[in-house]
Amino acid sequence: MKAKAIFSKIIKNQIMIPLVALLILALFNLIVDPSFFKISMGLNSLGNPVLSGYLITILDCGSELAILAIGMTLVTAASGGQDISVGASIAIAGSVMLRMLCGRNGSRELLVPIFVAFIVALIVAMAFGAFNGVLVASFKIQPMIATLILFTAGRSIAAWINNNELPIVYDESYAVFGGFIPGIPIPTPAFIAVICFIITALVLKFTSLGLFVQSVGINEKSARVNGLNPEAIKILTFVILGACVAVCALIKTSRLMTINYSVIAKDIEMDAILAVALGGNALSGGKFNITASILGAYVIQALTTTLYKFQVPSAALSAYKAIVVILLVVFSSDTVRGWISKNLKFGAKKEVKNV
Amino acid sequence: MKKFLAVLLAALMTLSLVACGKSDNGLIKVGIINNDPNESGYRTANDRDLQAMFCEANGYEASFAYSLKNDEQIAAAQKFIQDGVDYLLLSAADTSGWDSVLQDAKKNGVEVILFDRTIDADPSLYAASIVSDMDKEGATAVEWLKGQGLAEYNIVHLQGVMGSAAQKGRSGALDAQVAADGAWNIVNQQTAEWSAEKAQEIVQSVIDSGAAFNVIYAENDDMAKGAVAALDKANIAHGVGKDVIVMGFDCNKWALEELLAQNWNYDGQCNPFQASYIDDVIKTIESGKAPAQKTIIMDEKGFDASTITADDVNNYGI
Fold first, then answer.
1. Contact B318, B252 (CB under 8 A)
2. B208 contacts in A (CB within 8 Å)?
3. Residues B113 and B290: beta-carbon distance below 8 Å
4. Quick one: pLDDT at residue B18?
5. Sign of dihedral through CA atoms A57, A58, A63, A64?
6. What contacts A109, CB < 8 A, 6 or more positions away?
7. Identity of the residue in A159, A255, A315 whose CB atom sits nearest the CB atom of B38
8. Which of A63, A208, B74, B297 has CB atoms 3.0–4.6 Å from A193's, for a disulfide?
9. Least CA distance to B40: which residue of chain A?
């Protein structure tokens, strides 16, 4: 009986969905081609030791999405809607950062320390987050409509910041954030992601933010009656997402040492929302589980990497992705999960009868 | 006060008279409809080129309208026709829907010149069409690659957004060559949708798989840059005389600088400088003749890292 209770608890746990999806993908790769799990050590062009392999690629490339998933989960939980402007906001934050570093005329030396450029981009991204937040919280506009404004205008703003130029950073020290710290073989984005996870975990543990966000998401009126300020909390979640956006912009611009405002982080908002959904979080707000969203982000990256590995034809790529996503979402829906746990209980009852 | 106003009005009237007189003073009136210059580096260079050519110093009075939407462009065309322009220069957002407005233009004696993009309309409705030949761009690049004389070509092919004219032309030539010659193999063919990040991820995955390759054929500069970022991460030497040949398209200035530094091998031009061709066509029509050809295909170069010069970078970089 006790074992059954634990099993049923595990099945019902939100985190099972992305975990099972990840396991299925791993199992698929293990059966079809185990070289997926090979990790090798080599030297990069700067002579630093680096690890490489598909798993490292997933860890590396999934970082941005995982970081965004943190902010997107909070926004979803508090406002019951999603921010679709994150891709455009990344273009803005990245442009601001490179504008600070390279200046108007494309200087080859860094004009300001990277730290300063990042802080400025962070403030800008959080300000744009606050703009979205105010539209949603104070003007009661649906999040998707409110963020549609920046979604449409963001990349033009980014173009304007750098006067339509594509600035290039020549200083190698900037490559660290999207590449490797000399001497450490694990890609830096993975570390940045872990730092973000730890900060989030600490904030959720030592403050009441999680509880506040959840109560606003479940019932705004009763949250207000209980002395919370739902508007402030909603705005706060958008500002936190803004901070995540700035971190992503740092990683993405550092990977290529440049920014192309028209394509950087294109469609990333859809993947971020999908990560939240795969994490089993209700897109209508309320209860949430950030760990599950983060795992969801890595599931999406694992899927992308798997598809690239098997060289799915270009034209069919999105179709394959769609099929897998449909399967994942259907199997993680309450209906299917309820059916599974009901049938498992039924089986358990039978056993009891037989005994 | 009244006196002051009267003087002011009189001054304004004289000014506007002067302004009116100017367009009759031998300036050719052109209305230019283009896509939004923010769309891409190509479009920015294209717009800059047009702005520089069609100015009063060159005998033109030009008005510009920008939109990525066909209906807005058509509205702008109608406005230009009403304003009585002599020439309508058009880079259409969409290929269809232009018939009636071009017929209007014809009725009002406005000559239409298409640039950069063709449209599905009867050729009698426009005087000339100045375009890039994407098939030729691909063929030039493949011809260059053939000339490298490698024993075996193992190619990572990074495609643009599937179905776009540039993708079709640049993929077509390579696909044909691979099908025709047994020494040419595609190691991986994938769309990175013009994005450097996606290209980096795809090339990363090819490297992870351990497959051997010696050519990166990227259909634009951004994707070539992403590919090179992945190569650098894995310590694979690229460029002139190195293990992997890197090819890009569009001739961005920064890309040509990579060629100059011998980090890349080839960059194919997609010529955004149509203004001088348009100018020629207008001069021909003004002299009372018809343009020799209706469809004018622009010269497009392919740059080789071993022969490129700093002047090329300045002259052809966009």
1. yes
2. 52-54, 57, 309
3. no
4. 44
5. positive
6. A170, A171
7. A159
8. A63
9. A262
Test the B interface: residue of A260, A310, A320 with most B CBs within 10 Å: A260
Query: Per CATH, which fold does A56-310 belong to?
Result: ABC transporter involved in vitamin B12 uptake, BtuC (1.10.3470)
What ipTM does the predicted assembly reach?
0.85
Size of interface A-B (CB pairs under 8 A): 95
Phi, psi of B56 (to 5 degrees): -65, -35
What token pair was written down for B255? 């890309």
Distance (Å, rounded) from C-alpha A213 to C-alpha A209?
6
Q: Where are the domains of chain A?
A: 56-310
Asked whether residue B300 carries a pLDDT value surpassing 50, the answer given is: yes
Q: In Å, how far is A249's CA from the nearest CA of chain B?
A: 12
* A323 Cβ under 8 Å from any chain B Cβ: no
Nearest CA in chain B to A318: B191
Domains of chain B are: 26-132+272-287 (3.40.50.2300), 134-270+303-316 (3.40.50.2300)
B40 touches chain A (CB under 8 A): yes
**Nearest Cα residue in chain B from A52:** B208
Find, among B1, B4, B73, the residue nearest to B34 by Cα: B73
What mean pLDDT, rounded, does chain A reach? 89
Residue B220: list chain A partners with CB under 8 A. none
What are the φ/ψ torsions at residue A10 (nearest 5 degrees)?
-65, -45
Contact between chains at B39 and A262 (C-beta distance less than 8 A): yes
| Cβ contact B95:B72 at 8 Å | no
Q: What is the SS3 assignment for B27-66?
A: CEEEEEEECCHHHCHHHHHHHHHHHHHCCHHHCEEEEEEE
User: Which of A180, A260, A317 is the closest to B191 by Cβ?
Assistant: A317
Decide: B174 and B142 in contact? Cβ < 8 Å: yes
pLDDT, one tens digit per residue, over A239-251 is 999 999 999 999 9
Give the N- to C-terminal CA distance of chain B in Å, as an integer.
Answer: 55
- Which of B189, B219, B233 to mutate: most A Cβ within 10 Å? B233
- Within an 8 Å CB–CB cutoff, is residue B69 touching chain A? no
User: How are beta strands B302-304 and B266-268 bridged, if at all?
Assistant: antiparallel
User: How far, in Å, CA of A72 to CA of A94, rounded?
Assistant: 19
Looking at chain A, which residue has its C-alpha nearest residue B204?
A57
A265 touches chain B (CB under 8 A): yes
